[in-house]
Write a structure and sequence with these properties.
The protein is α/β, with parallel strands linked by helices. It has helices at 3-21, 48-54, 57-60, 73-81, 92-100, 145-156, 172-180, 191-196, 209-215, 227-232, 234-253, 255-265, 271-280, 293-303, 324-333; strands spanning 32-36, 65-69, 87-91, 107-110, 118-123, 136-139, 165-168, 186-190, 203-207, 221-225. The strands form 2 sheets. Strands 2-1-3-10-4 form a 5-stranded mixed β-sheet, sandwiched between helices. α12 crosses α13. The protein has 15 helices and 10 strands. Pfam families: NMT1.
Amino acid sequence: MTTKSMMLALAGSVASLALMTGAGLAQSSEPFRLIVTHLEAPLVPNSVMDLAAELGYFEAEGVDVELVRVQQTPSAIAALQSGDGEMANIGVDALLQVIHNGATDFRAVTSPNKSLPFLIASKDDIATPADLAGRSFGVGRVGSLDHSLSTLVLSSQGVSIDDSEIISLGQPDIRAQALLAGQVDATTMSIGVWSELPDTQGLHVLIDQDAYYEGAPVVNKVNAVTGDVLAERPEDVQAVIRALTKLSRDFAENPQMWVDAMVEARPDVSTEVLEMLAQSFAGSWSVNGGMSVEELSYTSDWLYETEDFADFEQLALEDWVDFGPVDAVLGELGTDESMDPADR
């Protein structure tokens, strides 16, 4: 029996027990459509949504989740607004914008993957962030997300990115290739892009993804629902959050479990890369639902200082977040104090 088969059999047993005991029952026989903006399980903790479906975790909670795959955030928001889905994984910036544009009942209820898995990589002779002074630093463009976040991260290290020569290069893979070719001395990229570089000799990770998020704790994506879904299917919303939280905890406790599941989901990626990624995600799982008040507030404060929100009055946290569903789940499961603060 394969690892996946064993996991599915176990999940099926749990689901049967839940049905027999009356626990974990969904309130609707209709599918609960979860809209995602990736076409296959991504090489980040967001894969927990795909794998919860594959490994039977949603079924074990008594909810029939159907993944609806779209290619871009606007399509996800449009699907949620038109009733073509019950929950959507979208950027916090997009959520705030759609609320400002009239969808005032949209609320974030959980975040399966809070942060972009960014890191700063550099040439080996740049031993510390302070050594970036006078060296070239590749960004997407001045004012881009990677530039803005890296400015915050370096500032937290007592370093000004303005002391470097900023070079606009475009997408992360292009920046990575420029670093590899010696055209820039340092740049920001995702852990996934770093892992796919064919040869990193002469390069190293200057600031890893955990330190990067610590320096700029900006929540990138949340799972949002409409007011109608919150009112009409609250138990199903909680069941989805409970499944994602349980699987996140299992992956945090046993990284090899994520590797084994991803080998099945992404046979195009080598086991060695998956094992490296699993270790890098050790502290990144949303074991408490990913809804830290401090981090969400920081994210909101930061976004409203950007050009995209210059014309908007800042929303209060309760105007775009509903902690009720995730707090109900944590009331059942308890909190995991090892990571992902439940600071409410």
